[in-house]
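Recap slide: Sigma-54-dependent Fis family transcriptional regulator, sequence and predicted structure.
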Amino acid sequence: MKREIGPNQMKIDALPARASLAAGQMVLGNIDYDERATMRAWESFLADEPKCARDPVHPKHVRSLIHDSWYRSATGGINAQGIEAPLSSDRDEIEYLTRANAELLSAARRSFASLGQLLDGTGAMLVLADSDGVLIDAIGDKKTLHDGMDIHLAIGGKWNEDAVGTNGIGTALWTGEPTFVHAAEHFCAGIKSWTCAGAPIRDPLDGKIIGVVDLSGYSPIFRPHNTALVAATARQIEKALAEQQQEQRTRLLEAFISSAPSYRRKDGLVIVDHRGRAIFCNNVPDGETTEMMDGPMEPGRGRWLMNLPSSGSDADLARALPAHLRSCHITPLKLDGDLRGAALVFPSVPAVSSAAVVHREVNKHLQDAVALIVGESEALQAAIDVACRVARSNSVASLLVEGETGVGKELFARLVHAGSRSTPNAPFIAMNCGAITKDLFGSELFGHVAGAFTGASRDGKPGVFELASGGILSLDEIGEMPLEIQPFLLRVLEERVVHRIGDSRGRPVDVRLVASTNRDIKQEVAAGRFRRDLYYRIGAVSITVPPLRERGDDVLLLAEHFNRKIAAASGEEPLEFSHEALDALLAYRWPGNVRELKNLVGRLHVLARGRDIGLHDLPEEIKSSGSEPSLQSTTSVEELEGTLAEAERQAMKNALEAESGNLSRVARRLGISRPTLYRKLDQYGIRRGFT
């Protein structure tokens, strides 16, 4: 039989949110709210003290959350006839509260500014409380703010359950969840004419509750979406806190980089913030990790490690270190003149070597990968050397390869893969960020579950991070990555956990990232198109692949390399280039770099009428670059004095023998350019060839 609803009862979900509510009727949740019945239950609860002390089963008209809070309030000694919360009006104490909660106040400023204007005239006020339930900010309807003073709902008022019993702020702090407390549900009689909805604010770094945002006013302001509103506001504040922390983290990393030039890549590093919490950790020894974190350190970022002294002197910092961290070197990190963190550096320990057979196999793969990068110029060899060091190192998780389009950046990614794979089947996954539409970026990177969005795969799909786990992920043209995707990439790199779109479950990944770009990332950062913290994460080690125009005689080495490779593939003889053609190749600027040269040689193999390539066979833009007057001497062999000619000829033969026929080294030994060496070899009838 359906129960009749009395004039002072409220049927939950009986009315839409915007409906005009009858007197005494309000939508509170999936329960019936009866003002009189709730009051009677409260009076009965207080009247039977022995029963109260035994924590009885709650009446059907009172939510279990409220009844449990009443029990805590009663057993905690709260005066049920109280009319107000405790209030501190001491100016020094308020100033201390403001300083202690400066980060929370700063993070809430934008949300409070936008909502404050909307609340004027609504009868509602929005308040911010710290982790103890003490109000540190309040905005909203002026009359309500004034009336709130009567119950000390104002800055300095203490509203945790230990101070004033059941209420939106204190009960949200206790439960850790968004909570509303309406009218008669309050424990103290003096605040039963109010309604409030509070939501806890958690520190994004360690998840601890650091405050509460609460919407309060007289009971008629209640709406079912009040709780959703404060919950959304709390999430906005948490997002602002996360942005502040990322900015501080980046600045502390910059401060460390500028203050610790002797830091080595193999050293362990932990950076703590001003509260002594780890905000960055890399390559920390296992023993130190166990002591500090009770588990792996990288996923545990945010754990408390130490108390930072106020002075920031080296002696005070050393004394503040816990006993199990005394093996590290500590450096104070100051921002704007104030101590805002510290760097803990653990001297490197020898890495455990792999089995000899695996080591030999990796070295062979690395040598093969190096051989694919053709060139002898110093700039190129320097880039190869850095890439090999990264490949052999276990402490470097990412590499940034910068260079113009067509210089062969992917070869460096494959070099790192060849030198670092721990198993024969370690994957190499490449993705061109410039070829992915903005809408599909997240799905391609992180994957998605079935039905995550319109057009999603019916069975779900792993992203490139999952596919590359245990190997190398090459992200080409990372400068093209949308700005809104970059924080998610940073999070995966930091936590080594990927969440598919539409899935709350994290999937651990072990990926080394090689990012490449043809843009100047520093300029992109300055222009706001690339996140500074992501740049520091992926660019801890970077190399620049020189453009072909800056690699000198590498042009001729590459031309012959492609010449012989294409000839072998087609079963034909290699092409022969004339002196004029070689001079033109050397003089050309190669805006398309190695890719352009490879395409040219391939086109000559198809279109040339014979095997001899002269200046007339080259494209017009290359011919014009090689048409300048030659720098070689116009003196013929016949005009040379016999002794001088013979001496020069013998010097070339001696140099060829000493350098085992390597023409680049022969040219350097003789102090002449390689094209000049070719001409001299032809002059004296010495057989030449590409090395």
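DSSP finds 26 helices and 22 strands in the chain.
Confidence is low (pLDDT under 50) at residues 1-31, 286-300, 350-359, 627-641.
(End of recap.)
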